[in-house]
């Protein structure tokens, strides 16, 4: 079965610092990749997704992610974080072109200090 | 457009009680899902449905049951509540076709079993 690993459990940054959250998955075939964000007390919202084409995808709120197939990675980045980015971030994978199951990583909690 | 609606938002149960968590979506999505979210563990899939009358087990189905009599509704049933079922439960839905389609989440139900 496929799995998703998020390397950092909790990241603490100051405002304006750059962010990179790691995500690796274990599946050798076609994948669709997602990053979701969960603000405190809220439901998960889609940040961005990759399914084909340009491996650098841009999402909402200035986030982007790069799909590196050879490394089975889909890292999330943001050049300059804001206090409002404080949230938990989840990487998720759909493995296989016909699959409908989403496998989530355990999440990375981001705390941004003003 | 309401999206995915879950009720109740909060509930406290005694061990051995039963209850149904309601989920309804108004986007005419074929696929619906139930997840539980525990701290530091990400989201685990309990059950899913690919259409009315069709349901299947996810990663952690024990202690739960589901039904899907209509496209809109996907209730989750706990028959004999146990402390291990204390969690936040999220319902999600997505369009049927294309594994690149994101899931849309409800606001969650926070359930405590005492």
Could you characterize what this model shows?
The complex is a heterodimer of chains A (114) and B (114). Chain A is an all-beta fold and 114 residues long. Chain A has no helices and 12 strands. In chain A, 0% of the residues lie in helices and 53% in strands. In chain A, the strands form 3 sheets. In chain A, strands 2, 5, 6, 10, 11 and 12 form a 6-stranded mixed beta sheet that branches. In chain A, a hairpin with a 4-residue loop joins strand 8 and strand 9 (73-78). Chain A is globular, with a radius of gyration of 14 Å. The mean pLDDT of chain A is 92. In chain B, the strands form 2 sheets. In chain B, strands 2, 4, 5, 6, 9, 10 and 11 form a 7-stranded mixed beta sheet that branches. In chain B, 0% of the residues lie in helices and 49% in strands. Classes of the chains: A mainly beta (114), B mainly beta (114). The interface between A and B is medium-sized, with 26 and 24 residues.
């Amino acid at each position: 079965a496929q799995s998703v690993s998020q390397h950092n459990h909790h990241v603490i940054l100051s405002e304006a610092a750059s962010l990179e959250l790691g995500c690796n998955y274990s599946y050798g075939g076609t994948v669709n990749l997602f990053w979701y964000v969960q603000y405190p007390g809220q439901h998960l919202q889609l940040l961005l997704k990759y399914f084909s084409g340009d491996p650098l995808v841009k999402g909402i709120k200035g986030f982007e992610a790069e799909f590196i197939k050879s490394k089975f990675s889909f890292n999330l980045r943001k050049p300059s974080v804001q206090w409002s980015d404080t949230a938990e971030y989840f990487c998720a994978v759909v493995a296989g072109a016909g699959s409908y199951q989403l496998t989530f990583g355990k999440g990375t909690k981001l705390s941004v200090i003003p | 457009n309401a999206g995915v609606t879950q009720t109740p938002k909060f509930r406290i149960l005694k061990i051995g009680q039963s209850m149904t968590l309601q989920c309804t979506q108004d986007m005419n999505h074929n696929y619906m899902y139930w997840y539980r979210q525990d701290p530091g563990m990400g989201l685990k899939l309990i059950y899913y449905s690919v259409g009315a009358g069709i349901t299947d087990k996810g990663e952690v189905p024990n202690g739960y049951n589901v039904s899907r009599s209509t496209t809109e509704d996907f209730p989750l049933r706990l028959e004999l509540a146990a402390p291990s079922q204390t969690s936040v439960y999220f319902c999600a839905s997505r369009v049927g076709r294309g594994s690149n389609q994101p899931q849309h989440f409800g606001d969650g139900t926070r359930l405590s079993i005492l």
